[in-house]
């Protein structure tokens, strides 16, 4: 991992699963990792107070209400956190950029859930029609991020190979999920890149069972309906991504995460 060209990096959601992995992977970087008591994205005054006391020239925005079940049960909280919270942060970054007369690199972690999740192989230029409330709130967050000048929106989905807690997995549900450590390296690579826009970062299309079986030998196969029948929200049948753009860029920026 090369030394970052960014002096200080504000990492929101640092206590979350991906945030913790980014901190571990980017140990040579200097991160600002405020907790919610010091930096609450749903409170503009909290953001303003923190920004007045701290200096940074890049942001990795991981903070979100990220569980689909939580968003389904409490859509108001999902809106406040994912849409309004991200909007608050974007506006604060715009103000800081105007004040400093410099751009701030902004990496936003989104989801493959912004696509419809029915046919798979979704490209960045395809229609974004989410299938549940979580996806809609993340798409709303993307709208705010697109108003920045120096941004990258990463649409992805990840898993931790060391923490596969379920005993059954579907043979007929597909995605391009990637291991969390790989995603952390990819996020830091996109931070260093000059790419502006939205990018899919995913692996090859696999069924959930095929993907997880490699890491948990006791995993049993089942059908997607066996899982979804007990859920109060929709899950994707095929959320696989066309990651051709990332595959091309990965070769050029490999040095940043090896």
Give an overview of the whole structure:
- This protein has one domain: Rossmann fold, CATH 3.40.50.
- The chain is 38% helix and 15% strand.
- Helix 1 (17-25) links the parallel strand 1 and strand 2.
- Helix 4 packs parallel to helix 5 (133-145).
- It is globular.
- The mean pLDDT is 94.
- The strands form four sheets. It has a six-stranded parallel β-sheet, with helices on one face. Strands 6-9 form a two-stranded parallel sheet. Strands 7-12 form a two-stranded parallel ribbon.
- It is of the alpha/beta class.
- The protein is built from nine helices and twelve strands.
Keywords:
Rossmann fold
Short structural summary:
The protein is an alpha/beta fold.
Major sheet: size, sense and barrel closure?
A: 6 strands, parallel
Distance between the amino and carboxyl termini: 5 Å
> What top-tier CATH class fits best?
Alpha Beta
Strand residue percentage = 5-15%
Radius of gyration: 18 Å
SSE topology sketch:
Elements: E1 9-12, H1 17-25, E2 31-32, H2 44-53, E3 58-61, H3 68-73, H4 75-100, E4 105-109, H5 133-145, E5 151-155, E6 158-159, E7 168-170, E8 174-175, E9 178-179, H6 180-192, E10 197-200, E11 206-207, H7 208-213, E12 220-222, H8 224-228, H9 244-252
Parallel strand pairs: 1-2, 1-3, 3-4, 4-5, 5-10, 6-9, 7-12
Antiparallel strand pairs: 8-11
């Amino acid at each position: 991992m090369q030394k970052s060209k960014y002096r200080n990096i504000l990492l929101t959601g640092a206590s979350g699963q991906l945030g913790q992995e980014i901190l571990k992977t980017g140990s040579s970087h200097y991160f600002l990792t405020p907790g919610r008591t010091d930096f609450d994205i749903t409170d503009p005054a909290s953001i303003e107070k923190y920004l007045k006391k701290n200096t940074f020239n890049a942001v990795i925005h991981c903070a979100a209400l990220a569980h689909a079940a939580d968003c389904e049960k409490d859509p108001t909280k999902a809106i406040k956190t994912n849409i309004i919270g991200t909007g608050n942060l974007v506006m604060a970054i715009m103000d800081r950029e105007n004040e400093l007369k410099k751009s701030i690199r902004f990496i936003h972690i989104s989801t493959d859930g912004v696509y419809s999740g029915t046919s798979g192989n979704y490209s960045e230029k395809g229609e974004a029609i989410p299938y549940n409330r979580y996806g809609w709130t993340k798409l709303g967050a993307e709208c705010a991020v697109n108003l920045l000048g120096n941004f990258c929106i990463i649409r992805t989905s990840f898993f931790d190979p060391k923490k596969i807690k379920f005993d059954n997995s579907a043979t007929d549900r597909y995605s391009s999920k990637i291991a969390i450590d790989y995603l952390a390296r990819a996020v830091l690579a996109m931070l260093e890149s000059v790419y502006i826009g939205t990018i899919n970062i995913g692996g090859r299309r696999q069924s959930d069972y095929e993907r997880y079986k490699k890491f948990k030998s006791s995993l049993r196969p089942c059908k997607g309906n066996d899982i979804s029948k007990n859920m109060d929200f929709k899950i994707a049948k095929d959320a696989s991504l066309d990651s051709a753009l990332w595959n091309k860029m990965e070769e050029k920026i490999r040095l940043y995460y090896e």
